[in-house]
Amino acid sequence: MLDLLAYPFVQRALAAAFLVSIACGVMGALVVVNRMTFLAGGVAHAGYGGVGLAFFAGWPVLPTAAGFSVLAALAAGLLSRRRDERMDVTVGLLWAGGMAFGVLLLDLTEGYNVDLMSYLFGSILTVGPDTLSTMALLVALLVGLVGLFYRPLLALSLDREFAHTRGLPVGALHLLLLGLIALAVMTAVPAIGLVLVIALLTTPAHLAERHAGSLAGMMVLASLWAFAFCLIGLGLAFWLDLTSGAAIIAVAVASVAVAELLPRRKRIARPETG
């Protein structure tokens, strides 16, 4: 098995797994604490519209899909806030509308002959150097923004009314959170796919929440869990000739199922917000 590490595609797969684990661990903690799992799923599926746009316009897929997803997430946040729409209705429209938009654009793309399975279910073993570089840039941007706005995001996550009384721009922070979720989702798409990415966002964070004493600790633990799932899933994919993305998520879901049989020790504490 160690001989596989000599192959460049395996090295890129491990690097991609590391990057995806950071993105999903950091943002997964915020998604779980803010109870935004359904929203993250909507953003993931809306990203299909960005994939269709990229092929239709002849643009790079990952940057285009990431930009499209961020704009779609921000639009959903603004729509639900300004028009008093229920967020679940807005997310439902985002979910279905993004998928439909992507399908229509692909139908209109001349000479289109690309296998979309890698975008729907991921293909971490085929991540190329350019895609890996883009993923690294997205993760750097994501971690940088979370680090810069950590305390405001912490206050927003733990008590929005308190954050508002402290004079924090709650509306702007909410939109920032939506944009960050979109970035994390699209970072993981090359490895896990649009359909499965929601599981890698939520399962590591759910497990980390049982033991973490702070949001930052939860982010670190979730990242470690996510990387462990990726490594085990990749190993199973090689050993049993399985689809890598599905194997990774199967390991994650099985881990949560086992953890639910064990007694809970601790939930995330409410740290001081300053």
Question: How would you sum up this structure in a few lines?
Answer:
The protein is built from twelve helices and no strands.
Question: Would you give an account of this structure?
Answer:
By secondary structure, the chain is mainly α. The chain has a single domain (2-260), classed as ABC transporter involved in vitamin B12 uptake, BtuC, CATH 1.10.3470.10. The chain has 12 helices and no strands. α2 (37-57) packs antiparallel against α10 (197-209), α3 runs antiparallel to α4 and α10 (197-209) packs parallel to α12 (244-260). The protein starts with 7 loop residues before the first helix and ends in a 14-residue tail after the last helix. Residues 269-274 have low confidence and may be disordered.
Biggest β-sheet: count, sense, barrel? none
Q: Strand-residue fraction?
A: under 5%
Q: Order of helices and strands, N to C? A: HHHHHHHHHHHH
End-to-end Cα distance: 49 Å
Q: What is the averaged pLDDT score?
A: 90
State the domain count.
1
User: Might you state the CATH topology name?
Assistant: ABC transporter involved in vitamin B12 uptake, BtuC
**Fraction of residues in H or I helices:** over 70%
**Which CATH top level class fits?**
Mainly Alpha
Q: Helix tally?
A: 12
pLDDT < 50 runs, ≥5 residues? 269-274
Corresponding CATH superfamily: ABC transporter involved in vitamin B12 uptake, BtuC
Shape: globular
Give me the count of strands: 0
Using only CA atoms, what is the Rg? 18 Å
Helix vs. strand class: mainly alpha
